[in-house]
Design goal:
The chain is of the alpha/beta class. It is built from twelve helices and twelve strands. Strands 2-1-3-5-6-4 form a six-stranded mixed sheet, sandwiched between helices. It has a six-stranded parallel sheet with strand order 9-8-7-10-11-12, with helices on both faces. Strand 11, helix 10 and strand 12 form a beta-alpha-beta unit. The relative contact order is 0.17. The N terminus is likely disordered. Bound molecules: 2'-monophosphoadenosine-5'-diphosphate. 2'-monophosphoadenosine-5'-diphosphate (ATR) binds next to helix 7. The site of 2'-monophosphoadenosine-5'-diphosphate (ATR) has 15 residues, from helix 7.
């Protein structure tokens, strides 16, 4: 591996996360804690995980320059998950866990690996991360599910819920609610193509009909996130009494939607669980070991603030 001039660890495997802006990423905190725990266990372990802020006009070239960067791979975050898909040499077709290899269906990549031959292989671990959150909450018997939103996060959720490879019984009834109906229809059709039997697309004025008797409600919009508009909480009493409410927003950790779900006696699943769930297979891909159980990732991230300022991209971008 080419030594990376931006670190003091020339022998270390170096990975990171690429996005713009990078101010809010908690990934370096999480991967950093896993790296430290690996080193405590085995002092010869060397790894580095950095945040790289790459301007939009440089993003495509940055991904293309990855083989020359000395990095073993990167996670990709907002707004580059679709761009990343375009520059890859190949999409991973198989994965030992769940639904790795569904990046093409999701239309987005959040993990790029540099192979020893210098090729770029992409994957999407968001869907796996989403399923991990359901497992953690014991919500593994999926009845009708409602997805709020129709952006990139909603695509990963739709694929995760409807796919038979998810490791859960696949969700046969998927109802999508979104401001823009055409986009809701697109996500509903994606769910159908992945295995759902019944799908509906709804605007917010029909949210009540969509929630009726559903056993899972997922907020895959950015509404309710710190700095975004609030989410107009739908009538949660329409859900099944044993339903789970999963908010992918994790800043704040306890969103107004989750508070409302708890008040209703429903299972509340935090977005942090998905964040941690998508990071695990990435760590394994970069560093060749599973993240140590000794790190309590939820406790770590609960009060975490983004650690170091983002680093410069390690090679000049043509
Ligand atoms: P991501 O890729 O992170 O999912 P995105 O593609 O920007 O982000 O999608 C954000 C979602 O939040 C979309 O479903 C968007 O609705 P539209 O498809 O109608 O744009 C939804 N969203 C964002 N702001 C919203 C608002 N003020 N009211 C209703 N929905 C909103």
């Amino acid at each position: 591996m080419t030594p990376n001039p931006s670190t003091n660890h020339p022998a270390a495997r170096v990975a990171g996360v690429v996005g713009w802006p990078m101010a809010h990423s908690l990934s370096p905190t999480l991967h950093g804690a896993w790296i430290k725990a690996c080193r405590d266990r085995d002092p010869s372990f060397e790894g580095v995980y950095r945040a790289f802020a790459v301007r939009p006009e440089h993003a495509e070239n940055a991904f293309r320059s990855l083989p020359d960067s000395g990095l073993v791979g990167v996670n990709v975050t907002v707004p580059y998950k679709e761009v990343a898909l375009r520059v890859l040499n190949e999409i991973a077709q198989t994965g030992k866990a769940h639904i790795l290899g569904r990046a093409r269906d999701i239309g987005a990549v959040n993990l790029i690996r540099v192979t020893p031959e210098g090729h770029l292989t992409g994957d999407n671990t968001d869907a796996v991360g989403f399923i991990e959150g359901l497992y953690q909450a014991g919500a593994d018997d999926l009845g009708p599910a409602v997805i709020l939103g129709a952006g990139g996060a909603a695509r990963a959720v739709a694929v995760a819920l409807a796919s038979r490879e998810s490791g859960l019984p696949n969700c046969e009834d998927v109802r999508v609610v979104n401001r823009t109906l055409d986009k809701a229809t697109e996500i509903a059709q994606l769910a159908k193509s992945c295995g759902a039997k019944t799908v509906t697309a709804n605007t917010w004025s029909d949210a009540g009909r969509a929630l009726e008797g559903a056993r899972l409600l997922v907020n895959a919009t950015s509404l309710g996130m710190h700095g975004s508009a609030p989410l107009a909480i739908p009538d949660l009493s329409l859900l099944a009494p044993d339903a789970a409410v999963y908010d992918l927003v994790y800043v704040p950790r306890e969103t107004e939607l989750l508070k409302a779900a708890r008040r209703q006696g429903l299972t509340a699943i935090e977005g942090l669980d998905m964040l941690i769930g998508q990071a695990r297979p990435s760590f394994e891909a970069f560093f060749g070991v599973t993240p140590p159980d000794s790190v309590d990732a939820r406790a770590l991230l609960a009060d975490a603030r983004p650690a170091n300022p983002p680093a410069d991209w390690p090679v000049a971008i043509p």
